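Subject: for your reference before the review

Hello V.,

The reviewers asked for a structural picture of the protein, and I figured it would be easier to keep everything in one thread rather than splitting it across files. Below is the amino acid sequence we used in the manuscript, unchanged from the supplementary table.
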Amino acid sequence: MPNHFIRFAETNLVMKKKVKGLCGIFLFVLFSIACEKTMPILIEENELLDGPIEGLSTEEQVQFLKGDEFFNDDIFTIEKGLGPIFNAVSCASCHAGDGKGHPFIRFTRFGQSDTISGNQFLNFGGPQLQNRAIPGYEPEQLPANAAFTNLLAPAVTGLGFLDAVSDADVIALADPNDADGDGISGRPHWNYIPNYVQLRPNSISQNGQYITRFGKKGAAYDLLHQTSGAYNQDMGITSLFEPIDTYSGLEFDPEVASQTVHDVVFYLKTLKAPLRRDEGAPDVMAGEQLFSQIKCASCHTPTLQTGFSSIDVLSYKEFYPFTDLLLHDMGSGLDDGYTEGKALSSEWKTPALWGLGLSKDAQGGNYFLLHDGRATSIEDAILFHGGEAEQSKINYTLLSDIQKGQLIKFLESL
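And here is what came back from the structure prediction:
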C-alpha cells in the first residue's frame, strides 16, 4: 500500500481516537480495504506467456516494446487499410496474451487437395477464407467442392528459439523412411520460399526448396514470411513483402510500413520461452517418465539447440519445446483433405507443447486443442492421435488411471 495512504489512514486514526475510537477504527479499515482493492495482483512469471527473453540490450528492448505495441495495441480500421475482406482487426485478436486462439475466431484455409496441382481456388479467394468485410463488401463464402481445413491461431511465445534451430539439426531428427522400424517417419517440410526472406546461416536446399517450419503444417519459412502473410491474409493489409490485395488480386501500395513488420517479427523472435511450473512435484516427475516411456517424446522432442542467431541471446542455446519441427502422418482422423505447401493432407507439424498448461488462460478458461480446437481436454487430444502416433495413443490407454493423471499433470506443467 502506498505510503501516503498509510500516513493518511494513521493520521485519521489518531484524530478520531480523540473523538470517537470506533469511528477511527472504521475509517482505518475502510482505507485498508480500498488500498487492497487498488493494489495490482501479482502474477508469477511462469504463469504468463508474454514477456521478453532475458539479456536483451537496451536497443533490443526498445525494439521489443515497439513490436509489442504493434502486435497487441495496433487495431486496423478502414482508414488504416483494413480489408475490404478480413478475419481480424489486430494481431492480438487471434493471439490474446500471446496464447492460442479460440474457436470463435477460427479461420479456414481452402482450395488445395494435393501437393502437385497447387491451389485450384485462388480465383475464388484461396488460400484463406476471409469471413468478415467492411461496409459495402460481402465476406467470402467457401466455394463448393473445395478442400478445406479449420485452424486455430497458435501461441507465439518462444518462436525465436524455434527459428534459430539449424537445418542440419532438423534433418538429423528426421527418419522419412522409418529406418529404425519404430513406426515413426517424420520428415522436414521442403518447400519453395518467397524471395523476400533472408536465408538462415548454413541453410540447406534440396531441389530449389528449403526447410519451412512455421504454421500448422510448417509451410512458412521464417517469422517474416509468417507475419507478412498474416497481415495480408488475416487483416487484408498489404506490405512491401505481400503487396497483393486479397479482394481484388491487384498489387497495392504498402498499408503497413516495412519497419513495423520488422518490429513485430523482432517482438515474436524475442518473446521468452514458456516457463515450467511444479517441476519437482512427484506426480509431474512421474508423468515426465511416462511421457518418454509411451513414446510421446519420439515426436515431441523435449530438448533442442539453437545455432547462430543475429540476436545474441538466442545463439547456441539449449531449450525445451517438445517438438521436432517435422511433419508426421497423423492418420485419417486428423486428415481434413487439405494440403499446404508440400505437406500431405494427413500430415501435421509436431506442435511445441511448451506453454500447454497455460493454453486455456488465453482460450476463455477451457482447452481447445489440436489444429482446429476439436479436443476440449488434453486426454481428448491424445485420443485423436493416429497414424504414426497410433501406438503412443494405445500405450496411453493401457496406463492406469493414476498414471494417466500423472502424465496429464506433467503436460500441464509445461
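For the response letter, the relevant points are probably these. The two ends are 34 Å apart (CA to CA). Residues 238 and 254 are 5 Å apart (CA to CA).

Happy to draft the paragraph if you're swamped.

O.
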